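This entry is retained here.
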Amino acid sequence: MRKGRMDKTLLLLILALVFGGTLIFASAAFGLLARGQVSMTSVVFNHLVLGIGLGLVGLFALSFFDYRKWRLFAPYCFGLALIATALVFIPQVGLSHGGGTRWLDIFGVSVQPSEGLKLATIMVAALYFAAIRTHVGSLVWGLGGFLAIIALPTVLLVLQPDIGTLFIICISVFAVYAAAGARARDIGVAIIIAIVCLGAILYAKPHARDRVMTFLNPAQNQQAQGYQIRQSLIAIGSGQILGRGLGQGVQKFKYLPEPMGDSIFAVAGEELGFVGTVGIVLLFLFVALRGFAVAARTADSFGGLLAVGISTYLVSEAFINIAAMLGVFPLTGIPLTFISQGGTAMLVSLASAGILLNISRHQKK
């Protein structure tokens, strides 16, 4: 294994998404500011200072921190992330919004600990499957280990509820498990278990069931559950080929829910058009390809599996958000990676990218 320079192409792709996303975010922010729903101070602090500012510091710091040391810290990070995620259920500490209890109030700043749980779960999964790589094909050690890793996150996130975050964790850990050498039989069993669990969640959680029903029949309840996807499609469609121009969109001012959050891709679609949104999709696709290439060239299994998990997390999150805004996937509340509002989400995403960049420094000869 050699220690060299980080993957500059991957770094440039990530920075392009962050800084290009900042322009889109700034445009979207004016929509809510015009409505009087947010203050400029809170927007600047939460997204630009806590999210992008600290996130970029974390990205560059972790790009120089030897990823192999995470072998020692992964179990502790996982335990702390589980504890922090459970703290949201404590009154006066946890915050609720929109029917979910997902945030902690820390000195007046809202923090979403489940964002850190994504990275911590990927770390512990990479550590576990690297340690048992000769037994991954075993039903007990392989599939059993996969189910054991996601068990506690599943319980906590279903109780919040935060099904979108749970979905990202399951996809990312499953990618680590599959890359470690899971047998086709066990992958099939895991998929069946996932379908059964999804059915149980839809039965027990009416809001999740409503989102699926809206996805299946978007014409129903267009002023209620179907309102967001309807307005999103109007915004994206009105952008046509080249868009109205950055900052020139109109849907964000009155009609589009969460223009800085879940619906920010719709803002981009209206202002940048088909050409701009395809560019965003291609950037994420190239990040995925570059991340998996880093995983393939890493000499040790822990680094390779960690790279697979982080790449899957960052890109699947983006593609699911985009798919939801286009009406080809149910709404989940998942942010658009590196672009949507969310200080904690941005911070963790950039820190994860920093770890991926450090892995790219340690490649096979």
Notes: The chain has one domain: 2-363. Residues 264-297 form the longest helix (34 residues). Residues 2-363 form one domain.
